[in-house]
Every structure is written in structure tokens, then in C-alpha cells.
Specification:
Helix content: 10-25%
Structural class: alpha+beta
Strand content: 25-35%
Oligomer: single chain
Strand order of the largest sheet: 4-5-2-3-9-8
Length: 151
């Protein structure tokens, strides 16, 4: 079975389950529930500046990405200072923490919160800098490019 056919089968099964279970007492479709923040006490949110949020919306729109994809902020080993920042669009996993900034829903794996707690993500677009930048209160050092850090 091709991937397209498999995706169609899965989508139809999900639609049938939703049609059977998502009804209100009046018999109509249930209204979608708003996403609630899941940042635990003592954790600070991941913050986006207006410029970063505008750029994320632009990318999502230009790439014609599914509305069910969230912005994921993560870290991975590597880079000059030991850890690299990662941004991308992803589906929500059961263990993910969810937060919101500037109207953008943000996913983060709880194991990454130690490194990302309170980070601010910006998108300067001037002559001297262009691209996402990270202001991390947890970083003890950062490399010159601004995309890797150490704790």
C-alpha cells in the first residue's frame, strides 16, 4: 500500500472516530477546546519577540504547513560550545510541555527545559544580523555565531 493510500485510510479512520465521539448534547459537532498552557510552577515560559513570531507565521504560511503542527524548541549536542538550539515544526507528543508566546503555540520536551527555561527567541532582520537569535539566561557561555551554548 502506498504512503498516500495509507494516509487516506488513517485519516478516514480518525474522521469516523471524531464523528462518533465529538458531538454536543444537541447532536452537533463539539467546539475545539483551547490549548491550555502546561508550564509547571517554577518554570519560565519560552518567549518569542514580535519579530520572531511574525517570521514563524510567515514561514508556516509560505511553506503551507498543516495547522496541527506546532513550533518545537529544542537543544541537541554539538556546536562550538557544546549544545545547539533547534527550531522546527512538529506534531505534539504525549510527554511534550506546551506553552504560548505571541499567539504561537510552542512545544518543548521536558528534558530540554533545563536548558531552555526563560529563553527569549528573536529574529533581527537588519543589515548586521538576520536569522533567529537566542537570549538564554541559563547559558554560561555562547559561541560567536549565537547558535550554540554551554551551561
Amino acid at each position: 500500500m502506498s504512503d498516500e493510500n495509507l494516509n487516506d485510510v488513517i485519516a478516514s479512520l480518525i474522521d469516523e472516530e471524531d464523528d462518533a465521539s465529538d458531538t454536543t448534547q444537541t447532536g452537533g459537532p463539539a467546539m475545539p477546546q483551547p490549548i491550555q498552557e502546561e508550564v509547571a510552577e517554577g518554570e519560565e515560559k519560552i518567549q518569542l519577540t514580535e519579530r520572531a513570531a511574525r517570521q514563524i507565521r510567515r514561514i508556516k504560511s509560505e511553506e503551507n504547513l498543516d495547522e496541527n503542527l506546532y513550533l518545537r524548541v529544542a537543544v541537541e549536542g554539538g556546536g562550538c560550545s557544546g549544545l545547539n538550539y533547534k527550531l522546527g515544526f512538529d506534531i505534539r507528543q504525549e510527554e511534550d510541555r506546551l506553552t504560548e508566546s505571541q499567539g504561537i503555540d510552542i512545544l518543548v520536551d521536558p528534558r530540554h527545559l533545563l536548558y531552555l527555561n526563560g529563553i527569549q527567541i528573536d529574529y533581527p532582520d537588519g543589515l548586521d544580523a538576520r536569522g533567529f537569535t537566542f537570549e538564554n539566561p541559563n547559558a554560561s557561555e555562547s559561541c560567536g555565531c549565537g547558535s550554540s551554548f554551554a551551561i
